[in-house]
Automatic annotation (TrEMBL):
Molecular function via GO: zinc ion binding
PROSITE patterns: WWE
Domain of life the protein comes from: Eukaryota
Pfam families named among the record's database cross-references: WWE
Domain WWE: 68-145
Biased composition (Low complexity): 179-195
Annotated segments matching region Disordered: 150-218
Protein name: WWE domain-containing protein
Amino acid sequence: MVKEELSDLQWEWEAKKDSWVRYDKASNEELNNNFEVSVVALKIEESDLEVDRMNMRQKNRTTGFERSVRCCIEEADGSRYAWEWQDEKRRWRSYPPNVVRQLESAHTSNESVVNVVIAERAYTIDLSSMEQKNDTSNVEKKVRRVASVAESAMVATPAPSAVRTRSMAKRKVEDDTEATTSKAPAKSQKAAAAKRSAKRTKLEDDDDEDQENEPRNT
């Protein structure tokens, strides 16, 4: 039943700051399923992932690396919109899916105020001023509804797996070692040439000094 209510959500992961990629169809269906569980396990190519739909984070279970995720409302014309709030570091964070649905419904109905609960904390969101207020602390944060321009999962360049990353690092070390080895003779020759030049200069200086110390004919 929850799945049917939220089936119009398109999930995305953040490749780099403010650059988003849509999950593939199968992963998106998994993320829109069984909202009684907050964490969903995904297998994408070689990566074992888990997505926390409450904190809106994706974690690689092998490397521990984390990314932000967000869910967008997909409209009939195919356009997608995300609802986000701004944290203390001025980074935009996605609301969890149930709140995204509430906010979009209120926006469509031209409601100005929405009361939501996130992680057992109550908030009042003013859609006129686009501000969120914590009902307990009165701390306010900015809110925005932003159009998604995320890349398709089919055209996005996947992040290297842990195995590929280690292989690439090893290859780079080998290449650097080979380059250093190939340059070593040239460096040795250059050092030897510099040493010979310094020796010649010293000999010439000694000759000049000897000439200056010779008795002059008067």
